[in-house]
């Protein structure tokens, strides 16, 4: 089974690093991090993502622009918000977004 | 349409990490059930027991309201704002993670376990300045009463958080009944039985059962045995 490609956007560098590390502990997922609009654009150039996790609290305008490039890359891409900044809710948010039971 | 949800204690998720045993009302960490994600803004209700001297190492949070209520033992909190605090039964700790915070939580006692409720609520304001607060409510009168221990208002009783939620604790004698009237009828109420047996409206509940009700102006709580309850009023939408 191909790994699900997950792009994570978060302002806080250490939280972003933590989330990517937690995602990559799951052998079915591969996480890529970006903490700016520019980094998100670059990430989309080399990857096809199944899911985009947007850390809550991002600047509204940056979030809107990121959602635009997500939908431009793939109108079917799933974009969800990540709360809490750690492992507690992360796996549920991803599994729920991917439609897992 | 149903306006209630029952979570029997035995239906909770369990995680056993050796040093930590966690009974989780809602999906948390590796445990997932799409039907058990939250009750309104109440997202996490973990009933954690940590072995002596052990605990949660340094880890980050952001944009979440995190409440800890010790039931047995002593819990030590340290965070990246420089707070170091110890809380015991009869105290409540609230942390607004806001823009980001690191913290540790350890059992202060080397020998005895600590059991505490770890509760997370989605915030109604994002990117707030992180803050920490704790309160000793042990001297408050909760015998056959519901004592407010948390609210959205900094000048109200209890600790305050960034969500329109109210928590009350009550120690009810066998046979005693009390009504909880909602502050906002658009909210829901989640009753968690810390000990004993109660009936909420018509629903019997045992120790560690949880019962959520919404679209009601009040809930009626009657103790079948001596009982201790945590009543959490939370927004169903925010």
Summary of the model, kept short:
The complex is a heterodimer of chains A (101) and B (238). Chain A has 101 residues and is α/β, with parallel strands linked by helices.
This entry's quaternary arrangement is: heterodimer
Into which percent range does the helicity of residues of chain B fall? under 10%
Query: In terms of structural class, how would the helical and strand content of chain B be classed?
Result: mainly beta
Judged by helices, strands and strand pairing, the structural class of chain A is alpha/beta
Q: Element order, helices and strands of chain B?
A: EEEEEEEEEEEEEEEEEEEEEE
SSE layout and pairings?
The complex is a heterodimer of chains A (101) and B (238).
Chain A: E1 4-9, H1 13-24, E2 29-34, H2 37-46, E3 51-55, H3 60-73, E4 78-82, H4 87-97
Parallel strand pairs in A: 1-2, 1-3, 3-4
Chain B: E1 4-7, E2 13-16, E3 20-24, E4 42-50, E5 55-61, E6 65-72, E7 75-79, E8 84-87, E9 91-96, E10 101-107, E11 114-121, E12 131-136, E13 147-151, E14 159-160, E15 166-172, E16 177-181, E17 187-195, E18 198-200, E19 203-205, E20 210-214, E21 218-223, E22 227-235
Parallel strand pairs in B: 13-14
Antiparallel strand pairs in B: 1-20, 2-3, 3-4, 4-11, 5-10, 6-9, 6-11, 7-8, 7-10, 9-12, 13-15, 15-22, 16-21, 17-20, 17-22, 18-19, 18-21
């Amino acid at each position: 089974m191909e790994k699900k490609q997950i792009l994570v956007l978060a302002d806080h560098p250490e939280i972003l690093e933590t989330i990517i590390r937690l995602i990559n502990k799951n052998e079915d997922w591969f996480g890529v991090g970006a903490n700016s609009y520019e980094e998100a654009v670059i990430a989309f150039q080399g990857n096809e993502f199944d899911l985009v996790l947007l850390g809550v609290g991002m600047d509204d305008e940056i979030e809107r622009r990121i959602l635009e490039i997500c939908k431009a890359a793939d109108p079917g891409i799933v974009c969800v918000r990540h709360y809490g900044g750690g492992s507690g809710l992360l796996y549920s948010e991803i599994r729920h977004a991917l439609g897992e039971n | 349409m149903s306006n209630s949800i029952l979570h029997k204690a035995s239906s909770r998720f369990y995680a056993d990490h050796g040093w930590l045993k966690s009974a989780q009302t809602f999906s948390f960490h590796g445990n997932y059930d799409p039907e058990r994600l939250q009750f309104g803004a109440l997202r996490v209700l973990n009933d954690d027991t940590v072995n002596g001297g052990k605990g949660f190492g340094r880890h980050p949070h952001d944009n979440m309201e995190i409440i800890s209520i010790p039931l047995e033992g002593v819990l030590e909190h340290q965070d990246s704002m420089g707070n170091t605090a110890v809380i015991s039964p009869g105290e409540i700790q609230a942390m607004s993670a806001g823009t980001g915070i690191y913290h540790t939580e350890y059992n202060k006692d080397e020998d005895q376990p600590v059991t505490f409720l770890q509760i997370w609520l989605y915030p109604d304001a994002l990117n707030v300045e992180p803050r920490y607060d704790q309160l000793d409510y042990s001297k408050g009168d909760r015998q056959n009463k519901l004592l407010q221990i948390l609210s959205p208002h900094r000048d109200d009783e209890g600790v305050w958080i960034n969500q329109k939620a109210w928590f009350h604790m009550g120690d009810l004698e066998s046979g005693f009944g009390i009504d909880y009237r909602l502050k906002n009828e658009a909210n829901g109420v989640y009753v968690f039985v810390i000990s004993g047996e109660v009936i909420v409206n018509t629903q019997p509940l045992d120790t560690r059962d949880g019962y959520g009700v919404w679209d009601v102006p009040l809930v009626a709580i009657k103790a079948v045995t001596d009982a201790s309850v945590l009543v959490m009023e939370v927004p169903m939408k925010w």
